[in-house]
């Protein structure tokens, strides 16, 4: 018996625009909107879902997505900010360098040039 990752689901009070934002930055497509209560996004690297909740759990997310850019990290950081992400800071550990950002609804994620063994 084995397990495979099916999708990563994010709670949202307004999942449709958030799903479209993630589809846009990841060159994906919205597969199903399900009347706005559960939105599925297919990307070249996996499936994301955004489910409607009355209120999100307060505080920092307990799980976040790490994105890898195969190009210029600074250019990608600037592109994400231009598309509506908030930059929360640049970090590094040894030779690894990455940016922590938040999507338009405050969900944190990181972007790096390679997979990092970060915090």
Description:
The strands form two sheets. A four-stranded mixed β-sheet has the order 1-4-3-2, covered by helices on one side. Strands 5-8-7-6 form a four-stranded mixed β-sheet, covered by helices on one side. It has helices at 15-25, 73-82, and strands spanning 8-12, 29-32, 38-43, 46-52, 65-68, 86-93, 96-102, 108-112. With 119 residues, it is α/β, with parallel strands linked by helices. The chain has two domains: 7-54, Signal recognition particle alu RNA binding heterodimer, srp9/1, CATH 3.30.720.120; 62-119, 2,3-Dihydroxybiphenyl 1,2-Dioxygenase, domain 1, CATH 3.10.180. The mean pLDDT is 92. The termini are far apart. Strand 6 and strand 7 form a beta hairpin.
């Amino acid at each position: 018996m084995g397990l495979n990752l099916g999708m990563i689901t994010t709670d949202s009070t307004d999942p449709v625009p958030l799903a479209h934002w993630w589809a846009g930055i990841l060159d994906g497509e919205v597969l199903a909107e399900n009347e706005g209560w559960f939105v599925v996004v297919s990307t070249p690297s996996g499936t994301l879902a955004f489910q409607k909740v009355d209120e999100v759990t307060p505080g920092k997310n307990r799980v976040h997505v790490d994105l890898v850019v195969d190009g210029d990290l600074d250019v990608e950081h600037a592109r994400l900010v231009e598309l509506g992400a908030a930059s929360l800071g640049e970090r590094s550990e040894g030779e690894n360098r990455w940016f922590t950002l938040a999507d338009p609804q405050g969900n944190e994620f990181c972007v790096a040039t390679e997979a990092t063994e970060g915090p």
